[in-house]
Design goal:
The complex is a heterodimer. In chain A, 8% of the residues lie in helices and 45% in strands. Chain A contains twelve helices and 57 strands. Chain A has a 22-stranded antiparallel beta barrel. In chain A, strand 44 and strand 45 form a beta hairpin. The N terminus of chain A is likely disordered. Chain B is mainly alpha-helical. Chain B is 49% helix and 6% strand. Chain B contains 21 helices and ten strands. In chain B, helix 2 runs antiparallel to helix 5 and helix 15 packs antiparallel against helix 16. The radius of gyration of chain B is 27 Å and the shape is globular. The C terminus of chain B is likely disordered. Classes of the chains: A mainly beta, B mainly alpha. Chains A and B meet through strand 24, strand 28, strand 32, strand 33 and helix 10 of A and helix 1, strand 1, helix 2, helix 5 and strand 3 of B. Strand 32 of chain A pairs antiparallel with strand 1 of chain B.
Chain lengths: 1092, 559
């Protein structure tokens, strides 16, 4: 076994081009005898070791304890080893040996390394107290026992300046992350994820298969949380510079667990989580809904005929009467209690020659929406083999298989919109449910055509199929070679070579059966199956040289690193669509049907970079770091292809100064100024060439079209960052923390689809550099590990705050023009303005002032007829303006085709300029989507073996447009509305804040502050209780460790926000909307961990 | 020994560094596309891009604009079933610069492809010996004709439009440019076509190509149309005659064994099937099957799965699935299918009692809408239509009857204004000849669709003045070319000729049942004949100035 592995390794040496060509220098035979005090020892291992402790030849003693070995070199050593005896190493200084071995009476004491704590940075291994960059790390042992699907959930609220927003509560939907705000317009803003020094993200630029955003962010799902040892977030350019253009949005470094020297240890853990949906809007019942709708149809024209819609009439002679006379709570129909079972098994251990860790996990999860199911199997193998003191081989292998049964339609969204008087199952004439799902017929009243297109969500859940399968395989091999210096007092030069393959295959199979559509059979929507797949393969190889010279004056220390990496990847995708399959039982796109589309695509990407970085330290008190990276990409033309990204940072450990020594309580105080430049590249390939693509044929002539305008001038987006950091530690680092102040200036902002005159034949240039922006802010982070110790009671806490401000400093005027839309005079829209010297995300709209009580004006209220609260124009003193003895009526957009005279029951918008006309001149600033402050805090309390752990996160000072509520209160179409519209204005004199129902007319839901809400919140992410059984009680059972825990996740949220969850993504140049996506579920988890 | 090894290893490592530092390694080419540097090498490349010019014309955005720009604002169309807002706003004479149909990208896309062909084809001719001078000239004529056709649509819709004759290749070029005035652009197009028309292919020897691609006849028809707009009637007649003559020759060639058509007869397809009195023959050949002998240029939609379809017809007019499309015919036209009278002057019925076209082009009223069935019917037999089950109706751009009526219009408008004052003058005599010539043309078109009415149902004496003849021609164009995207342009041409919109507005207003006075006021301005420039286009092209009737001054509203 061992020999075989060695041959494999030998083969690898040849691959690396680095095999030691050890020359044969004659051969001598040495022999001897091995014995102990009692006599000769049989089967003692005798090995010849070279100076790097590599085995070069081998023998065992015979029955008389004799051995004889042909040695390779007299400068080597011989080592004798035998079970139960102390190993002996002797120089080859004679021809005949007489070896006496001693009993190993005492176990060797564990070696305690005197090394300083090292924090991973992806480059040099710099001691923590010498780091001059802005970064923050978390050890995963802090999260032991918590149920997280992926690491981003655990990080939420823990890293100052890292804002993590869960995309939605759908299974496998992942999250989106922003570090230090948004510093780009369209270029990717997600931080780089690096696992064991390898970039995790697969470049999916050229995947055309409709991969929804959700999956793109879900890449972290491929790493089992249990496999993670620690996470480090690199924040400033000085830290991320060695990741160059990839790290422009920050870097999240994940280190996975590896085996360690010691006995094999088997750990098993099981977790069960139960999840449920938080309560959303209360919706109208069927009876309330039909009443509201009849009013909505009646009001615009005051005609009963308009409201005479047979589906709303409860007319028993109507053939579909039983289908339209119900009170269905659609939301209740699509939600359920979700469950998650996680099993995880790991085995780790190691010895002199090798360390290993093997782990496997299985998660089975059902969602809080019906018919969602996610299964995931992941395994990871890490192996370290010490060939000699010079050579170490490491190998990693990770595989993740995900099987995600998703819904074909957005069920919750449908449930909120579907008419509640409709039945789920078709009912017979007596009103009993049959087994057929009911769909609105094509022959329904024309007014209800929008409902006709809303599929029955329960039917969609159970009849349609949408299956995602994903395989990700990441094998890696690493060779470490000490070229110079085996001892710490010599100059050291170390080489590291890595080869990494990243293989990802994704399949999607979907089927949409006839039962869900009521269109005719020949339609391409009937019995439609789609099968698509895409695969990608990335090969990365990296070569690093680390040089650490030794100075005679030990006050100086220097480390340096030179690295090159080459990545070559390609991808392919294909998709087949068939429709009109003969029956709903046949769900495969390969079955006989009408073929409506076959498509395929292929992509390719390459990159090269070189990095040099160096660290200098004087007495571990004054530190300087420098790095330079040269990045090459295929995305720019030859003249713009290479980018140079330098960084420079300093650190001064003030607390080490002699004059600070007297302050005993101060264990660390340091100042870290840093500067650096990073780049960003567009998300598409082949931009600088003119491409000709095949197009549809004309008659029988094959056609080729010029498909783009080539971008000869496109260049790197660069971000220059200044960071000033302060680290502190008190009372022997019982309380530590850091403060960072930063300023980021992004120039040559990359923007996609920049509009150009379409008389060019193209609507837009695919990418352009359009301007610059500035981000500045600060971050505060405190950690107190076991800050308070009272006997068995220990208390720790963490706290982080961050703030970010963003300003456009410069932008092409025409780009600004095309980004800013004009007031469209239509309901439901807010204006966004992107202006130089202003931040993104500002919300503009009308001011909502309630509802006109009366149509007719009178100075004194005549109940039921007229009153002062009527749509009349008032001057700035609040006096009614009279015209020809009549009060001047209030208009919307007078003089345009959208002109509308307000009536009683209509929304009141503040007439800012008192001109009696509500138009774009009355639009005001309503707030910003960007939070003033965000962060999190947590406590950890230990009492003996019992511990309680909590974590909170918060956001403060941002505004959200609650579009979900807007759509549920607009009373403008046939979608179901929230129960609050029961308070709507119905007749003259009603005092209410909800306007009247108006089907397809009026301006009752213009973008106004009525739907702009404060998005501040404080969320309790989790409370966890865990208990560890004392070891001595477990010993008899052969168990090392046994612990139990329970936790409540997403326990509560304190907010004034009226929607389900105010934690919504923000960023880009648009404003934050709540579109009632599946909210994050609330859950509890119970688990057990067992190790042998 | 040891250092030697180290040096060897180190240099191997460095070698890897240097190997990978090769900059060319980053030069990757698209896997699914061809790059410019490898393209334009032989004749096939040129032909493929020419084909793509046609493909672009098949796009539903182009065909729907041909319909919307050319006819939606006219008196031929009202709201049908489920009309989207954008189209409805145009119908309601409320065109905003935000309306998507003010967008013209798809036409400039065709233009850019033509420009690309015209730029690169001469270079290919130098490289590829198989690509000779005459093929090059023929392809250039084809590209120039398609380009001119697109500009012609744009200028009739927007009046002044930017004229680009260079391909858009890279981001160093400037794409914002000033619009070229209508008359100037008309001259550019005429010059361009005059210069290339003789190189165009006369016949491809393939029925589909002969009508589906640009031929010399197609260029002549387009030139006739351009001259008609230019009010250069001599040239218009000259080119109309060339087309009519060519069609006649083609007819005689096809029917060698029969008697040759006399020069005063026209090769129109008769409404009745030869040898019987079943009507629908001309409809079936011209619109049902397509590529008829009467056709000069039409967009060819190949009936085969996975090919580009003509969804414009099924969406706007109707299909077997939804017999009421977005649009319908107004009542005053629709009710003629139930029997009109024989008086055709404006203000009365459009179709005569027995005109087969009224029942071929318009369906029976359903839900208060007269559905449009032209193109939507696959076939008609004795005025009973059968809807298409697939969206593959060809879209006709020029056909013989159009050209004949163009000629009639040119002849009539050659009559000087003074001719009618003095009936004895030579001008009056000349006018008489012109009027009877144009009457003959109109009657030929009219009679083939009125087989039962008899040869003399259209009485010359009713139309013996210039105005009346113009009215007759306009009415016949309305009947014959109804729903082919021509009517609004006919009205605009008339308004331009007359220098005011009065007549146009009188005609168009008849389809409106409400807000007539507002619409009348709105449409009286000469500028209102044209669409506004799209708002997004104005933002990125500072040389464009919005058509003044569409500038809203919201800040100065006073009551």
């Amino acid at each position: 076994m061992l020999m075989r592995r060695r041959t494999i390794l030998l083969g690898l040496f040849i691959y690396f081009g680095l095999s030691m060509a050890t020359a044969q220098s004659g051969s001598e035979i040495v022999s001897g005898k091995v014995r102990d005090e009692l006599g000769p020892l049989v089967m003692v291992n005798v090995i010849e070791l070279d100076e790097a402790n590599r085995v070069v030849s081998h023998d065992v003693t015979d029955i008389n304890g004799n051995f004889s070995i042909r040695i390779k070199s007299p400068r080597n050593k011989l080592r004798f080893s035998y079970v139960g005896y102390e190993t002996l190493t002797v120089p080859i200084d004679r021809k005949v040996f007489d070896i006496v071995m001693a009993d190993a009476m005492v176990l060797q004491a564990a070696e305690i390394t005197g090394r300083k704590a090292i924090t991973q940075t992806g480059g040099l291994s710099i001691p923590e107290r010498e780091l001059s960059m802005a970064l923050q790390s978390i050890d995963m042992s802090e999260f032991e026992g918590l149920s997280f699907t992926s690491i981003d959930e655990a990080l939420q609220g823990r890293i100052a300046g890292l804002d993590i927003v869960v995309n939605s509560g759908n299974l496998g939907s992942g999250s989106s992350m922003r570090l230090r705000g948004v510093s780009s317009i369209n270029a990717n803003s997600e931080p780089l994820i690096v696992v064991d020094d390898n970039v995790q993200a697969v470049d999916q630029t050229d995947f055309d298969v409709a991969t929804a955003n959700e999956e793109r962010f879900a890449q972290l799902l491929n790493i089992n949380v249990e496999d993670i040892e620690s996470v480090t977030v690199l924040k400033d350019a000085a830290a991320t510079a060695i990741w160059g253009s990839q790290g422009a949005n920050g870097v999240i470094l994940i280190k996975t667990r590896r085996g360690a020297k010691g006995p094999a240890r088997l750990t098993y853990s099981y977790k069960f989580s139960g999840t449920h949906q938080p309560k959303g809007l209360n919706m109208l019942t069927g009876d309330q809904y039909t009443m509201m709708l009849k009013e909505a149809y009646f009001n615009p024209t005051l005609s009963d005929a308009a409201a005479n819609i047979i589906e709303l009439n409860y007319d028993p002679t109507f053939s579909e009467y039983q289908q339209y006379n119900n009170n269905t709570d659609w939301r209740e129909q699509v939600i359920k209690f979700g469950q998650k079972h996680s099993h995880y098994l790991s085995l780790s251990g190691g010895g002199d020659k090798a360390n290993f860790r093997v782990s496997g996990g299985y998660d089975g999860e059902t969602g809080t929406i019906i018919a969602q199911k996610l299964d995931r199997f992941s395994t990871r193998v890490a192996l370290d083999y010490f060939v000699s003191e010079r050579i170490k081989i490491m190998s990693n292998f990770a595989l993740t298989y995900t099987n995600n049964q998703r819904n074909s339609d957005a069920l919750l969204n449908l449930a909120y919109r579907k008419m509640p008087n409709l039945t789920v199952f078709e009912q017979d004439i007596m009103g009993n449910d049959t087994h057929e799902y009911y769909q609105v017929l094509q022959s329904c009243s024309n007014e209800l055509s929008d409902q006709r297109n809303l599929v029955n969500p329960v039917a969609s859940a159970y009849l349609a199929k949408n299956l995602d399968r994903n395989y990700s395989i990441v094998p890696e091999i690493i060779l470490n070679y000490n070229l110079l210096g085996l001892n710490p007092d010599e100059n050291q030069l170390r080489y590291e070579g890595r080869i990494l393959l990243n293989i990802s295959n994704a399949y999607n199979d979907s089927f949409y059966p006839r039962e869900l559509t009521t269109t005719i059979w020949s339609s391409s929507a009937v019995n439609r199956a789609i099968a698509s797949s895409n695969k990608s393969l990335t090969l990365t190889h990296r070569h690093s040289f680390m040089f650490t010279p030794v100075f005679s004056n030990t006050d100086h220390s220097v480390m340096s690193l030179l690295r090159a990496e080459v990545t070559d990847g390609n991808s392919g995708s294909q998709s087949t669509t068939t429709y009109g399959l003969p029956s709903a039982g046949i769900e495969s796109a390969s079955a006989e049907g009408m073929l409506s589309g076959i498509s395929s695509g292929a992509g390719q990407w390459r990159s090269i970079y070189y990095t040099f970085s160096a660290h200098y330290s004087y007495k571990s008190k004054y530190m300087a770091d420098f790095s330079l990276r040269r990045d090459g990409t295929t995305k720019f033309g030859p003249s713009k292809r290479w980018g140079y990204f330098p960084a420079f940072s300093l650190r001064w450990n003030i607390s080490d100064e002699p004059w600070m020594r007297s302050l005993e309580w101060l264990s660390m105080l340091s100042l870290r100024p840093g500067w650096g430049v990073v780049g960003n590249q567009p998300g598409a390939e082949y931009l600088y060439v003119s491409r000709y693509t095949t197009a549809d044929t004309y008659i029988d002539m094959p056609a080729i079209i010029p498909s783009n305008i080539r971008l000869a001038n496109l260049q790197w987006e660069t971000k220059t960052t200044w960071n000033l950091g302060l680290d502190f530690g008190f009372w022997n680092n019982k309380l530590t923390g850091d403060v960072n102040i930063y300023d980021q200036y992004t120039s040559d902002l990359l923007m996609s689809s920049v509009a150009i005159p379409t008389s060019s034949g193209y609507a837009a240039l695919s990418w352009q550099n359009v301007g610059s922006m500035r981000n500045n802010g600060w971050e505060l982070n405190f950690q107190g590990n076991q800050l308070v110790e009272l006997g068995k009671l220990k208390l720790g806490f963490n706290l982080s705050f961050a703030n970010n401000k963003n300003i456009i400093t410069e932008m092409d005027e025409r780009v600004l023009e095309s980004l800013n839309s004009d007031f469209s005079r239509s309901n439901g829209t807010y204006l966004t303005r992107i202006q130089v010297k202003n931040a993104f995300g500002s919300i503009y709209g009308f001011r909502y002032k309630g509802v006109y009580q009366y149509s007719e004006y009178s100075e004194v209220e005549i109940p039921g007829i007229s009153g002062p609260n009527a749509p009349v124009v008032r001057n700035d003193e609040g006096r009614v303006i009279m015209e020809d003895g009549e009060p001047k009526p209030m208009y919307f957009s007078y003089g345009t085709t959208a002109a509308y005279e307000f009536q009683g029951g209509d929304a009141i918008y503040e007439d800012i300029n008192h001109d009696g006309n509500i138009n774009e001149l009355d639009i005001v600033y309503l707030g910003s989507s960007l939070p003033l402050l965000n962060g999190g805090f947590g406590f950890r309390l230990n009492y003996g073996r019992l511990s309680v752990n909590t974590q909170f996160n918060f956001r403060y000072g941002n505004k959200i447009v609650n579009r979900a509520r807007m759509n549920a209160e607009k009373m403008y179409d046939n979608t179901n509305q929230s129960a609050s519209v029961n308070w709507r204005w119905r007749m003259d004199g009603d005092i209410t804040t909800i306007p009247r129902a108006l089907y397809q007319s009026g301006y009752n839901w213009l973008g106004s502050d009525r739907f702009v809400e404060d998005g501040s919140f404080l969320r309790c992410n989790y409370v966890q209780l865990s208990y560890q059984i004392p070891a001595q009680q477990l010993k008899p059972l052969g168990i090392n460790q046994l612990s139990f825990y329970v936790s409540m996740n997403n326990l509560f949220i304190l907010t004034k926000y009226s929607g389900v969850d105010p934690e919504l993504g923000y960023g880009g140049y648009s404003i934050t909307f709540d579109d009632s996506q599946t909210p994050r579920a609330k859950s509890f988890t119970a688990g057990i961990t067992l190790s042998f | 020994m040891k250092t030697k090894n180290i040096i060897r290893n180190f240099s191997l490592g460095l070698l890897l560094f240097t190997l990978s530092s090769c900059g060319d390694w980053l030069e990757i080419t698209p896997l699914n596309d061809i790059v410019l540097e490898n393209f334009w090498t032989d004749k096939t490349d040129v032909e493929n891009v020419v084909a793509s010019c046609y493909t672009a014309l098949l796009g539903s955005d182009v065909v729907s604009r041909m319909l919307i720009w050319g006819e939606l604002r006219s008196d031929n169309m009202v709201q049908g079933q489920g009309i989207p807002d954008a189209e409805n706003e145009i119908l309601r004479a409320n065109i905003l610069p935000t309306n998507p149909y003010t967008g013209w990208t798809c036409f400039y896309n065709v233009i850019n492809r033509c420009n690309t062909v015209l730029y690169y084809a001469p270079m290919v001719a130098q490289k590829d010996p198989n690509f000779n001078e005459s093929s090059l000239k023929a392809i250039e004529a084809e590209a120039k004709a398609l380009r001119a056709l697109c500009y012609f649509y744009l200028m009739r819709t927007f009046r002044d439009v930017p004229y680009a004759s260079e391909p858009s290749v890279d981001d160093n070029q400037r794409y914002d440019m000033a619009p070229t005035p209508f008359d100037e652009l008309l001259q550019i197009l005429i010059q361009d076509l005059e210069g290339c028309k003789d190189y165009a292919i006369k016949a491809y020897g393939n029925k589909a190509y002969n009508t589906g691609r640009i031929t010399r006849d197609a260029i002549h028809a387009l030139l006739a149309d351009l001259y008609l707009w230019d009010q250069d009637y001599d040239n218009c007649i000259r080119y109309c005659d060339l087309v009519i003559q060519s069609k006649r020759e083609q007819y005689n060639e096809l029917n060698k064994d029969k008697e040759e058509l006399a020069s005063n007869e026209y090769p129109l397809i008769e409404a009745e099937t030869p040898g019987s009195s079943v009507t629908g023959n001309s409809y079936n050949q011209v619109f049902g099957t397509g590529n008829s002998t009467e056709s000069i240029f039409e967009l060819y939609f190949l009936e085969s799965p996975g090919r580009l379809t003509n969804t414009t017809v099924s969406r706007y007019y109707g299909s077997v699935n939804a017999q009421r499309g977005y649009l319908g015919a107004p009542d005053f036209i629709g009710r003629d299918r139930n029997g009109g009278s024989n008086v055709f002057l404006y203000g009365n019925e459009v179709f005569a009692k027995k005109d087969v076209r009224s029942r071929e082009y318009i369906g029976r009223s359903s839900g208060g809408v007269f559905p449009i069935t032209k193109y939507a019917y696959r076939s008609v037999s004795n005025e009973n239509g059968v809807y298409r089950s697939t969206d593959f109706a060809n879209w006709i751009i020029y056909r013989l009857s159009d050209v004949m009526l163009m000629k009639a219009e040119a002849l009539t408008n050659m009559i000087s204004e003074t001719a009618e004052e003095d009936t004895a003058s030579s001008e009056a005599a000349q006018a008489k000849i012109l009027l009877s010539q144009s009457f003959e043309l109109v009657r030929a078109v009219y009679n083939r669709s009125n087989p039962e009415a008899g040869r003399d149902s259209l009485n010359y004496t009713n139309y013996s003045s210039k105005d009346n003849m113009n009215a007759l021609i306009l009415a016949e164009r309305q009947r014959e070319l109804m729903f082919e995207g021509k009517r609004w342009f006919d009205l605009v041409r008339m308004a331009r000729r007359e220098g005011n919109n009065t007549k146009l507005v009188d005609m168009v207003i008849s389809k409106y049942t409400e807000n007539q006075s507002t619409i009348r006021t709105k449409m009286m301005s000469v500028d209102a004949l044209y669409f506004p420039y799209n708002e997004e286009e104005l933002k990125v092209n500072s040389y464009l100035k919005q058509n003044p009737v569409y500038i809203t001054e919201t800040s100065s509203i006073t009551r």
